[in-house]
Amino acid sequence: MGRRAAIVGVGQTYHTSKRKDVNGQELISEAVKRALDNAVLGLRDIDAIVIGNMDHFEGINCVDGWSVDGWGAFRRPIMKVTTGGSTGGTLGSCAYHHVASGLFDVVMAIGWEKNSESDTQAAISTCADPILERDFFGGAIGPNAAQYAMYMKRYGATQEDAALVTVRDHNNALKNPHAHLRKFITVQDVMNSPMLCWPIKLLDSCPRSDGACAVIYASEDKAPKIADRPAWVHATAVSHDCVYFGDYDWETMPTLEATVSRVYKRAGITDPLKEIDVMELYLPFSTCGVAWMDHMWFCDRGEAPKLVRKGVFDMDGELPLNPSGGVLATNPIGATALIRIGEAALQVMGKAEDRQVPNVNTAMATAFGSCYWFEATILRSTKP
Amino acid sequence: MKNISTGSEGELLEMSSGGAEHVYRWYCGHYISKFLIGLRDRKTILGIKCSHCGRVYVPPREVCGRCYRTMDKWVDLGTEGSIYAFTVVKLPYIDPNTGKSIKVPRTDIYVKLDGADTCLMHWLDETDEKKITVGARVRAIFKESRRGTIHDIECFTQI
Known about the structure:
The structure holds two protein chains of two kinds.
Chain A: E1 5-12, H1 24-39, E2 48-52, H2 55-58, H3 63-66, E3 78-80, H4 87-100, E4 106-114, H5 120-125, H6 141-155, H7 159-173, H8 187-192, E5 195-198, E6 200-201, E7 210-219, H9 223-226, E8 231-239, H10 254-267, H11 272-275, E9 278-280, H12 288-291, H13 304-310, H14 326-329, H15 333-349, E10 362-369, E11 373-380
Parallel strand pairs in A: 2-3, 2-4, 9-10
Antiparallel strand pairs in A: 1-7, 1-8, 4-7, 5-6, 8-11, 10-11
Chain B: E1 2-3, E2 13-14, H1 29-42, E3 46-49, E4 56-57, E5 63-64, E6 69-70, E7 73-76, E8 80-89, E9 106-113, E10 120-124, E11 137-142, E12 153-158
């Protein structure tokens, strides 16, 4: 293990479907200023910066060049990382690694996206192999819809089970002033919404948002001087495994299992339902909020629908998921997973305002991207 | 340039990339070329087996990711298998290869070919989800005129 590190500041923009009032650089700057304000730091206090997005959404490559002034990176040590939807998770890990290495004391991670600038489904489709798979891919929705078709057949789960996840996350978002979609909905609203890729309907799906998020990591010496209650990083992990979408084993979800197993073990967690107080999970579709729960040490395979129906993951349940409203309410893709880490940190820091879960000591955030890649971070109020 | 002014903020502009056309050329390599030629000339689907772990991959590729071994045992998988998963796409979106909207409804399937450990992605000729079953047997239908692409298979059909 490297040096100890903690999150000490979080900032995010006003997220909506089209930020026509700002260009990419101005959008990034908005999140950076808010993160610095949140940590009560100036740019001179930041030693290094990592940034990421998915270039193909804007069609402008090299964000680490053209937007450098907007993130205060003028002549500073910087690094760009991009891993598809999981970019924000990778950014968090990268900033943590920078601090843990001992080379930098205070490091800022920035994730951003202007999804409004292109056709999201078309841009996402470019991550599928163009010779063999792209024509059969169905954008981001296709593989997740196919997985749930299989899950329903195997375990008797229903479209209504998935709708319960949408209702939970959307209605949580009502208390989050940063959420893009804030409208009270019911299971019936979900069931009546237009079918996109059977069995995923409009309200089962994440929106496409414009937005940015910045999260500041600090070393053991610096963190307590910056924040009263820093969110200490106890573990991060990443797992990617396949070349083609057709390779992935949706029955065992090996990348999700490997990722959560690694962070649980590193943080000494054996029963996450009891030992983790809140999670911000990258659930891009409501169906993932059912099928993926089988692979996170919550229950045996096929048991997740029962937990969802019992409200185990509701705000007043045993393990509240996505108090922010999650990805189903807000999805500026390159920022989405970093927002999960930022929201988990705010919960640990006691700064989550109306969406605060009481007495949070341990929180987890996940990221999901591309060919079923997963990442996770565990944060605690106490040092590792 | 288009004015997208939203009132109180004054005049704001938006610029479109125009009717851009940017053609890529993707080189298929030895493994995918052989796979595509198998479709074109023999109307069969080729996979490749790892001699270390025994997994059979389709599409074929050079390296087994689990073992990091180069693979050279080609397997003729024929044309039949079963539906591992599927979705019926009803939302049209822009096909990034053509710049035109895709035709919907369209059924994307993940086929577990007999003898393979991974799935081949393709289309099914049925777009009513009530008439499609996970696990159903399917067979590839080949085009009369084939030119060495994945679309030498027209689609799969339930048998």
